[in-house]
Amino acid sequence: MDYLGAERKKAEFDVEDMKIVWAGSIHAHQLSDRISKLVANDPAFRKDDRTMLARKELFKNTLRKATYAWKLINELQLSEEEASKVRFYVDEPAFTDLHWGMFVPAIKGQGTDEQQKKWLSLSYKMKIIGCYAQTELGHGSNVQGLETTATFDPKTDEFIIDSPTLTSSKWWPGGLGKVSTHAVVYARLITGGQDYGVHGFIVQLRSLEDHNPLPGITVGDIGMKFGNGAYNTMDNGVLRFDHVRIPRDQMLMRVSQVTREGKFIESDVPRQLLYGTMVYVRKTIVMDASYALSKAVCIATRYSAVRRQFGSQNGGPETQVIDYKTQQSRLFPLLASAYAFRFVGEWLSWLYTDVTQRLQAKDYSTLPEAHACTAGLKSLTTTATADGIEECRKLCGGHGYLCTSGLPELYAVYVPACTYEGDNIVLMLQVARFLMKTVSQLGSGKQPVGTIAYMKRIEHLMQSHSDVQKPQDWLKPSSVLEAFEARAARMSVACAKNLSKFSNQEEGFAQLSADLVEAAVAHCQLIVVSKFIEKLQQDIPGNGVKQQLEVLSGVYSLFLLHKHQGDFLATGCITPKQASLANEQLRALYSKVRPNAISLVDSFNYTDHFLGSILGRYDGNVYPNLYEAAWKDPLNDSVVPDGYHDYIRPLLKQQLVPAKL
Amino acid sequence: MDYLGAERKKAEFDVEDMKIVWAGSIHAHQLSDRISKLVANDPAFRKDDRTMLARKELFKNTLRKATYAWKLINELQLSEEEASKVRFYVDEPAFTDLHWGMFVPAIKGQGTDEQQKKWLSLSYKMKIIGCYAQTELGHGSNVQGLETTATFDPKTDEFIIDSPTLTSSKWWPGGLGKVSTHAVVYARLITGGQDYGVHGFIVQLRSLEDHNPLPGITVGDIGMKFGNGAYNTMDNGVLRFDHVRIPRDQMLMRVSQVTREGKFIESDVPRQLLYGTMVYVRKTIVMDASYALSKAVCIATRYSAVRRQFGSQNGGPETQVIDYKTQQSRLFPLLASAYAFRFVGEWLSWLYTDVTQRLQAKDYSTLPEAHACTAGLKSLTTTATADGIEECRKLCGGHGYLCTSGLPELYAVYVPACTYEGDNIVLMLQVARFLMKTVSQLGSGKQPVGTIAYMKRIEHLMQSHSDVQKPQDWLKPSSVLEAFEARAARMSVACAKNLSKFSNQEEGFAQLSADLVEAAVAHCQLIVVSKFIEKLQQDIPGNGVKQQLEVLSGVYSLFLLHKHQGDFLATGCITPKQASLANEQLRALYSKVRPNAISLVDSFNYTDHFLGSILGRYDGNVYPNLYEAAWKDPLNDSVVPDGYHDYIRPLLKQQLVPAKL
Ligand SMILES: Cc1cc2nc3c(=O)[nH]c(=O)nc-3n(C[C@H](O)[C@H](O)[C@H](O)COP(=O)(O)OP(=O)(O)OC[C@H]3O[C@@H](n4cnc5c(N)ncnc54)[C@H](O)[C@@H]3O)c2cc1C
Ligand SMILES: Cc1cc2nc3c(=O)[nH]c(=O)nc-3n(C[C@H](O)[C@H](O)[C@H](O)COP(=O)(O)OP(=O)(O)OC[C@H]3O[C@@H](n4cnc5c(N)ncnc54)[C@H](O)[C@@H]3O)c2cc1C
């Protein structure tokens, strides 16, 4: 029985068409659909027991799944694209993520052709398993401060990799703790007694015969992380080197080399090339944000339509909680955000192609902008997604706190995205630096490009007044864009003005950094708002599809405007009256989302397996399934619990003295 | 070695005196100090392994600790106050929390003298163990919608307790799943064929001889909840009744009774009496918020002083991350919030005494205000605390994601406080209702009392202008109060105006509920701000103590003002210029907090055991301890992991076909 059938009938658009928009293309939709069902229908990928397993069992089970998936990929002769979708839908962090997502790209990006030939062919067949060992116990954000050393020994033509201090222990790399045979290790290159800063080296860690760590290597897992199940399927590791020797040709030498004699040479390939990889990785993270948020939103939306509380009249059914405006005002902006992040991710794919082509043509002019933009979007989308998942969990009331809701694990497994690949605050400070540089160069003839191009119109933006006079005026993309551009520009200019009061710019930047982060956030929100609007300028086929997306785009921007109205008002971009009109329009948009809500989350096309949530079941049949699942908890193995005779009974019987305590 | 010694020397106030302020009195300080050390020094209460244990082991261990603690309490003949501190410092959710915190108070509040005599004497000795069974699978927030029935059978003078539907299964009660012998069960009272709404009944669930469920009772645990360790030490349970009979005198009959003949009588004791218990429970929750937040802040503050990243000059040490203004602007408001919540909690204790005395004198005039105020403060402080704990975790970068940081478990165990004892949004809507009622009665001669008394000055507040002209003006309590009062009053009045446009008030309330929640939040923030200011009007002894608290009070209010500047600007309470002056003053206050930060968290007087965090260690010796703790993870039991032969080796050796998968 489809408990949500009535909801589905309300939709004012064609769900099948929206699925294609969400996936990005017909091809992508068909691929996702096929692979997600393949995974969902294979009992080997069952994950409903994950949160109940103790660490060792959990981890062993992940090894099984990863190996089984690899077998499947080989047997079915899946393409690279298909294989990565298999890993995606298996939905369990594993060493393979780092092997494919960091080790292979690092070699591709930083290895010479020869190195690529050798190491990639081994990696592609998984004859070796690699990880990415950068962070140390004492250094994460400050990569230049890493302490591990790679000292060239000209006598033997080798590097000696060493961990000179406790804090130089590698700490955090995924896949390192128990599985990887190799790692790309970042270490300070020392040759001829001189320190040439941090470079990457391929180091074998474990024997390919018996998996024991090689001499001089101490390696293990760093222990339990946030949540049950979640990221504990991953063996984030600790690693110490005691003068481990590797051949010279295992330094990744695409951008700099050490010769047989120990001479350090910077190659003519510019370091900027490495930025390409960074844009790629961050694009993936933004995409992942939209997937994680959409999962949470799908669960909370379906359950909000199933859950009824209060408002029963004459013994009729109670009100679905999705009909409460407070519920809508918390949930629908997240639904809109999921779509917004999806489209900005799509745009980042375009940006990556663009950057790659420019790099090949040795055009480095757009790199600073692309770098700031991806850093900012990574920070913005991961923070909003982590917070959004928790909000979705709370939207499910008490039942959201149960692991069977899927939401606790989703949060715990997602939230480190705010920290890895750049701490979100540190990244926003980078954006702020770029903004201050842009402002300082205005009028110097250097034209701002890409997502910062609006700064060209700075004079206009500093003094413009919003033309909004009635709620519906806030539906005009031009009015929304103008307000967001003016806010971002004015916040940047205000910071720049305050900065100029300091004689020491670095000191000023440090003192004002909290304000600078706010300006950077305003800039990044503008990017997301504008990319959503740009998406709607494209041709989007499907009955009612574009109209729905227009509503969501409005919800996304007006929700942000309301949430940050302090910025808009303080900078005088809009008046209190206009802020209140925006809020009124926002409320009207929520009512438009309401009948389409279930179909908008159906459009993500997620299987029940992928969602992993009883509250988010497609059929809405929540209660009997919650009830049944409860009995599977290990505590229910026996009616009278372990510990009754030792503890509970002596307590009740007032016989504590002889009790074994 | 004390790595934080240099930090401690910087303090500009007397830490020992601040400890007394934090504890509330010399007596309370000495008691806390003694009991916390007693618990910390007893290896039976070790908790560092908690996040690694599988459910059954974890739970059994909790039974052991709870029983051991009870033994200790008896052997040492501890007072009730001391005993509750023991449970507090053991710091592990257990059935005893519900027994002492809900079962006993429910009987006290709702039982007749006779019932109290019988059941409390059993309970005080723990000859029976009780829980509080209200929530059902289908009903939480809407208590009046509960489905469990208690039908009076005049033939046998018994009630028949029954679960007529699946959704009427009791679901969530702590201590129910595996331990409780008894429960206070909320059920619809039916007598003479008529439904008299929800009442409480004492029901025995399990045999006192062998702990088996009594006939007609199905009971079990509802399964894993958010996080490892955390609330999984608690047996939240499911319970179904199949026509279970209990004697008539097990209905809690203080406010209403059923006679031998089955006649329902509302006693002359007014239902409002029950509000007293609610004020008590919520006061405790607000206190707990300050404890949980202060723990998180203590960990993040100490670690922020230990952690160094970037900014090394000439090979000197890097910058302590606590010196970054972004770190301060995230951390110090939380430090200030911990103190703010502590003081508002203290004030709530006074309120509880006041309410109790008034109830005894049959003065019910302040009850609606007290009820709204405690509902709002519960909502405000628990939301801020849950978010604050997560922020503290993120402030610790990657290492905050490790369970050994203590923060993941602290978050997971704390966050349901946003949901239980009233969903935080539902509570804010109650506050909003009270606000709208107050506004509508202004001018009717009915004088607003207590925390809403500022509404008496509504005419002034609607048109006042802040007199702030320079940053320091924001240090004047009167200027701060005036701004917060004006903002709260104007937001309420604006909502009331919008409401009046609706012909149907209920419909209007529903439509505007998101705005109403914002107005309620503004009102509740004002309460916390004003109680902090009132606290500072008292005599506070100790060198520099009061000065520090004044700084924190300023941080708390100006941080809120900055965060919600949209409200202040939209309502015209302050100008953009004044908002910017507030921000400037806030920045100056952060610099004043900085040298005192470590000592301000030392003043909480938490033992390392209670904190349960390597990052938050008193001695700051973080890295060697993180490193050592890692090796205790079960995955490190063997160098080569379980699963190597079955999965990793076949993968590496390309021998997947014969692998057992
Ligand atoms: C689940 C997970 C997986 C990971 N996987 C890998 C992996 O595979 N390989 C790998 O090498 N690493 C990995 N990491 C490590 C990760 O990259 C780092 O944790 C991350 O870069 C953050 O650095 P940190 O931990 O040193 O934080 P810190 O820099 O110590 O941050 C602590 C606080 O200081 C603040 N701060 C730091 N610098 C500044 C500044 N200049 N200005 C203002 N504030 C500042 C931060 O905002 C933060 O609040 C992983 C981490 C996690 C949690
Ligand atoms: C860890 C934990 C321990 C607990 N312990 C106990 C216990 O010992 N005994 C016991 O009896 N219960 C217990 N509970 C249950 C708890 O009291 C309920 O979960 C709580 O009251 C919330 O109710 P709900 O789950 O029905 O949420 P719901 O009411 O279903 O909330 C779902 C969503 O609907 C929204 N909503 C609901 N009504 C309205 C409305 N009128 N207007 C606007 N929005 C609305 C909420 O804001 C929320 O977003 C516990 C719960 C937890 C998580």
From TrEMBL, chains A, B:
Which SUPFAM superfamilies does the annotation name?
Acyl-CoA dehydrogenase C-terminal domain-like, Acyl-CoA dehydrogenase NM domain-like
**Cofactor dependency:** FAD
Query: Where is the protein localized?
Result: Peroxisome
Q: Where is the active site?
A: 421 (proton acceptor)
Q: Name one GO molecular function term.
A: fatty acid binding
Where would I find the Acyl-CoA oxidase/dehydrogenase middle domain in this sequence?
131-233
Instruction: Fetch the InterPro entries from UniProt.
Output: ACOX_C_alpha1, Acyl-CoA_ox_N, Acyl-CoA_Oxase/DH_mid-dom, Acyl-CoA_Oxase/DH_mid-dom_sf, Acyl-CoA_oxidase, Acyl-CoA_oxidase_C, AcylCo_DH-like_C, AcylCoA_DH/ox_N_sf
Annotated residues for binding of FAD: 135, 174
Which residue range or ranges hold the Acyl-CoA oxidase C-alpha1 domain? 275-436
Q: Which domain of life is it from?
A: Eukaryota
Give every Acyl-coenzyme A oxidase N-terminal domain span.
14-129
Under what name is this protein listed? Acyl-coenzyme A oxidase
Q: What are the GO cellular component annotations?
A: peroxisome
Keyword tags: FAD, Fatty acid metabolism, Flavoprotein, Lipid metabolism, Oxidoreductase, Peroxisome
Give the family from UniProt: Belongs to the acyl-CoA oxidase family.
Question: Does the entry feature the keyword Transmembrane, yes or no?
Answer: no
The yes or no answer to whether the keyword Oxidoreductase is present is yes
Provide the GO biological process annotations.
fatty acid beta-oxidation using acyl-CoA oxidase; lipid homeostasis; long-chain fatty acid metabolic process
Q: What is the lineage of its organism?
A: Eukaryota, Viridiplantae, Streptophyta, Embryophyta, Tracheophyta
Report domain Acyl-CoA oxidase C-terminal positions: 477-653
Q: PANTHER family per the record? A: ELECTRON TRANSPORT OXIDOREDUCTASE (PTHR10909), PEROXISOMAL ACYL-COENZYME A OXIDASE 1 (PTHR10909:SF250)
